[in-house]
C-alpha cells in the first residue's frame, strides 16, 4: 500500500485512505480517481476471511466449541498463503501503476 501511495504522490494524484475494522479484522482502503474520472479503490481485502454461504446462517447458532485456539478458519497453515497473496496483489497494483504512466 505504501508503494502505491508513493507513486500517487510522485504523480501528484490526490487520494484518500481509510481503515475499516469489523469483527477484529482491519482492512486498509485507498481511493483515487483515474485520468478518465473513474474512482479506483485499492484495499488489502486478503485480510477478509472467505466463507461459504452456508456458514452464514440467518439465525446465529450457539457456539458449542469454546476451545478453538486458532483465529483462522483454516488454521495456521493458511498464513503463508495469505502472505504470498498479499505480495502478489501489491506487485499487481505496482505494475498497474507503471502501465498507467
TrEMBL record:
PANTHER family: LACTOYLGLUTATHIONE LYASE_GLYOXALASE I FAMILY PROTEIN, PTHR46142
Name of the protein described by the UniProt record: Lactoylglutathione lyase
Lineage of origin: Eukaryota, Viridiplantae, Streptophyta, Embryophyta, Tracheophyta
